[in-house]
Amino acid sequence: MVCFVNVQSVDRIIYAIFIRLLCGRFPGNRSSTSDPHKRRFLMTRLAIRLSILLLTLPGIAAAMATWSSHVESTSTYSVQNNVVARFTPDQAITVTRIELQSAFGSSRAEYSLGQYAQCAKPISFQLTDGTTSYTLTLPGPSVLPVPYGSAASANFSSFADSGRLDLRFRGGNTLTVLVLQGDAPQGSSASACFATATSVTVQYHVDADFRSRVEASGSN
Q1: How far apart, in Å, are the Cα atoms of 78 and each of 29, 129, 150?
Q2: What does the buried/exposed string (b/e) look like for 99-123 if buried means 16 or more CB atoms within 10 Å of the residue's CB?
Q3: Which of 30, 118, 120, 179 could tie 140 with a disulfide, CB 3.0–4.6 Å?
Q4: What are the DSSP E strand ranges found in 20-123?
Q5: Who wins on pLDDT, 196 or 45?
């Protein structure tokens, strides 16, 4: 979950806490604690909590990560040779989102009409470990069709977002990103569907609880 907060409000809260700890009172409050032992106790407690937070943050950051791959041209791949990248996590992970960004989205060249056009079957990308899979389709640019003569000034970019996911994979299993081809070439009238300069970003986090459940079930 991502939280959006008012920085100024947070600053005021932090300021109030430190005034409370240092002076024994909140700003604007005339009542104060003059007992130095109590202030020392409060400062010690704050120091302990800050230390725990600082020690925990690296672990939290390490648990959240992205795995990125790049495909210069989908035409380089085929049905038999379609592996873009491999990733073998040591621990169980949960994939929470997959995003695609392409400089030239799913398109095909229509030779007879002299233009780039939409694909009936666009290019797709699949994340899989052989058991669990998710496929995300890369749409064609919204400007299509575009005559060859206007291609230099056209924006052919496109993107796709899976939205929130909950795909769980066991530790030690190899995950692969695959290119799934679109339209086949149509002789001398049209090219195969293609996309160029495409980035595939997989967001995931380490799932210690899931790993524990899998190990526990395997030992029974």
Answers
A1: 73, 19, 29
A2: bbbbebbbbbbbeeeebbbbbeebb
A3: 118
A4: 64-73, 83-87, 93-110, 115-117
A5: 196
168 and 109 co-located in one domain: yes
Q: Is 42 found in the same domain as 68?
A: no
Range of the domain at 36: 7-62
**Could you give the CA distance from residue 220 to residue 208 in angstroms, rounded to a whole number?**
19
Is residue 21 included in any domain, yes or no?
Answer: yes
Q: How many domains does one find in the chain?
A: 2
User: Residue 80 and residue 110: Cα distance in Å, rounded?
Assistant: 25
pLDDT for res 94: 95
Q: What residues are paired with 100 via a beta bridge? A: 160, 200
- What is this structure's pTM? 0.69
Pair (76, 47) in one structural domain? no
